């Protein structure tokens, strides 16, 4: 009976609808992260659906054959997923070589970790943030989720077989053990979350596996309800679910859509309960798709359009970010209107790649390419496929042998540049300390140096396009500057104009880390009368963060450079919050870097976040003018 029922539910139209909404959510998030900040939640829905389908396959095997055909299970998953995955990687690498060679630098580790399905751990180890990656994601950033999924496929069949063995006499174990494991995993998600970095929580297999398990629990529950020996307590539970189906479906679906809109990948509540809640909503919807197949909602979610998109959702997911990143790079200096049309065109291009991948790669490998006839191998489709693969292999080969000759576009070169700037800042910090200690005390000494100082002021005024009076005002000021890698870039120019400034900057720093450093300096009595904050690029600034800075600063003047993070979800909220506090506190001065940066894309390195020379000097000028205007 279990086998017969399994065949009946081998295709569930409503699930294609869930896949469609999920992949559309991810696409919209990658296109317009400020507007569709919760679109990344589509990955959680994918995880639940995968958990349900994989558990259903395992249960079907156990019911039909009395054991799990493990080799067959792994081979089917391999041929279902790996060929299209590898072709996408090869083709994308080739396209990078021809259209965006800077994207090839540092790609070896990414390629290897993806091919072995451990990319999520690679991104954790290399601190590759999904939500603080600057203006552009990498073409392969999204593949972390496929690594998590592959690891689940490897472990879960063995685990579920063991769980069902333990539950042979006590059916409750078949639900209680997975529920316990899911709770542990969701607890780890909340524990691993940190405002400073979401990487460990977001990418970790252990902290994300609960979504798969909850999907698996839906499959186990449905199997129990359909068995002739179904316990009475589950029968009563089923009646309740049926009685209130309209309400539960409405709440689950609307809750899913709301989370797709309001969730933000850097906010604590998403990790505390948001993803868990979304997983439960998805599992409930799947339950109704299976148990009430003629429900109107199931029929709506299984419409032709959703079935078409859903069937190709895997290939759509594979190609969406490579297409976005490469086209964005090609058209990066065009107007917003052009970017809008490029976004629409990119969606069409993704659909084209996905359809070709589905027809020529997914389906043939899924049904066994070994049985293809000689005639089909010589068809036009396969000739074109061969050409695409040849192009991909050529590009991959060229990508591997290419050297690091592409100037500042290289991510490796950016890291080297920031390291070099850090050394400059360290040397200048030492000089600033010496300058403070050896300040001239006699008025005559000051007079003898005034002529030289005026000449230097005029020279610096020319460099920074400001007045010599402003330079003279800020040159002797003691300033504590705290920030992230953007301050590392700006630091040398800042210390050229303000030689007594002490710069404390670090790559990847988040707001709370900067505040902790600020508190340490205050405790050590090293905090200057003027504080400069260049922080907010890598994540959210909260009202509590600003209050902490105000408390630490006391009567000191705080100058805070607002955020320009290439359209990341926290950019707008950060700047609005700073603007509101600026109006309330006379000691807080917000420097509007965002407006100038937004109007001058030529100021930036290819990541769209770190300023180059013109951008460094523009920010330094804004800082000089703001401090000079505010300090008497």
Automatic annotation (TrEMBL):
It holds the Pfam family Acyl_transf_3. The keyword Membrane applies. Gene3D superfamilies: SGNH hydrolase. One of its GO terms (molecular function) is acyltransferase activity, transferring groups other than amino-acyl groups. InterPro entries: Acyl_transf_3_dom, Acyltransferase_3, SGNH_hydro_sf. Residues 427-453 have a biased composition (Low complexity). Residues 13-352 form the Acyltransferase domain. It comes from the Bacteria. One of its GO terms (biological process) is lipopolysaccharide biosynthetic process. It is found in: Cell membrane. Signal peptide: none annotated. It is a multi-pass membrane protein. Residues 417-453 are annotated as: Disordered. The chain crosses the membrane at residues 12-32, 38-60, 81-107, 150-167, 174-196, 208-225, 246-267, 273-293, 314-331, 337-361, 382-401. The keyword Acyltransferase applies. GO terms for cellular component: plasma membrane. This is Acyltransferase (Putative). It comes from Oenococcus kitaharae DSM 17330.
């Amino acid at each position: 009976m279990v086998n017969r029922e399994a065949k009946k539910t081998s295709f569930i139209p409503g699930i294609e609808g869930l896949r469609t909404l999920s992949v559309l959510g991810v696409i919209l998030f990658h296109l317009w992260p400020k507007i569709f900040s919760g679109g990344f939640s589509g990955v959680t829905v994918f995880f639940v659906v995968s958990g349900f389908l994989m558990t259903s396959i395992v249960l079907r095997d156990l019911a039909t054959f009395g054991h799990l055909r493990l080799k067959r299970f792994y081979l089917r998953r391999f041929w279902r997923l790996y060929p299209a995955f590898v072709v996408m990687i090869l083709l994308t690498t080739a396209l990078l070589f021809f259209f965006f060679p800077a994207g090839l630098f540092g790609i070896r580790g990414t390629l290897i970790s993806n091919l072995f399905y451990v990319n999520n751990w690679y991104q954790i180890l290399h601190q590759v943030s999904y939500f603080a990656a600057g203006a552009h994601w990498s073409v392969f950033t999204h593949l972390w989720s496929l690594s998590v999924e592959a690891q689940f496929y490897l472990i879960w069949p063995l685990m579920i077989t063991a769980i069902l063995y333990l539950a042979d006499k006590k059916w409750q174990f078949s639900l209680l053990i997975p529920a316990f494991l899911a709770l542990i995993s969701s607890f780890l998600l909340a524990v691993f979350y940190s405002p400073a970095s979401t990487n460990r929580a977001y990418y970790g297999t252990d902290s994300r596996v609960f979504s798969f398990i909850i999907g698996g629990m839906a499959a186990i529950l449905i199997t129990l309800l359909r068995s002739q020996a179904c316990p009475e307590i589950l029968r009563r539970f089923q009646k309740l679910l049926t009685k209130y189906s309209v309400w539960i479906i409405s709440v689950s679906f609307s809750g899913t859509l709301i989370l797709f809109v309001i969730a933000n990948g850097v906010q604590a509540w998403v990790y505390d309960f948001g993803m868990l809640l979304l997983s439960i909503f998805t599992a409930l919807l799947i339950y109704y798709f299976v148990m009430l197949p003629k429900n109107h909602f199931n029929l709506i979610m299984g419409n032709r359009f959703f079935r078409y998109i859903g069937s190709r959702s895997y290939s759509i997911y594979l190609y969406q970010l490579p297409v976005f990143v490469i086209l964005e790079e090609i058209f990066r200096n065009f107007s917003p209107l052009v970017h809008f049309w490029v976004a629409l065109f990119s969606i069409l291009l993704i659909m084209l790649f996905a359809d070709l991948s589905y027809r020529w790669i997914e389906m043939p490998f899924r049904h066994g390419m070994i049985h293809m006839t000689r005639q089909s191998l010589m068809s036009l489709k396969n000739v074109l496929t061969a050409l695409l693969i040849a192009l991909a292999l050529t590009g991959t080969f060229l990508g591997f042998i290419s050297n690091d000759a592409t100037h500042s576009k290289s991510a490796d070169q950016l890291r080297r540049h920031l390291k070099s700037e850090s050394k400059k800042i360290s040397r200048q910090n030492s000089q600033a300390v010496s300058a403070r200690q050896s300040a001239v005390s006699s008025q005559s000494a000051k007079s003898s140096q005034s002529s030289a100082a005026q000449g230097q002021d005029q020279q610096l005024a020319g460099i920074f396009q400001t007045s010599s009076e402003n330079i003279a005002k800020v040159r002797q000021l003691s300033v504590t500057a705290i920030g992230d890698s953007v301050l590392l870039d700006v630091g040398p120019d800042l210390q050229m104009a303000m030689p007594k400034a002490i710069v404390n900057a670090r790559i990847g720093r988040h707001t709370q880390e900067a505040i902790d450093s600020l508190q340490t300096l205050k405790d050590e009595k090293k905090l200057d009368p003027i504080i400069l904050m260049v922080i907010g690029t890598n994540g959210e600034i909260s009202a509590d963060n600003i209050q902490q800075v105000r408390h630490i600063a006391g009567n000191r003047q705080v100058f805070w450079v607002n955020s320009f993070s290439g359209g990341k979800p926290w950019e707008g909220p950060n700047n609005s919050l700073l603007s509101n506090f600026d109006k309330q506190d006379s000691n807080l001065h917000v420097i509007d870097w965002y407006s100038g940066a937004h109007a001058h894309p030529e100021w930036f390195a290819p990541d769209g976040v770190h300023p180059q020379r013109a951008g460094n000097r523009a920010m330094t000028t804004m800082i000089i003018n703001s401090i000079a205007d505010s300090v008497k």
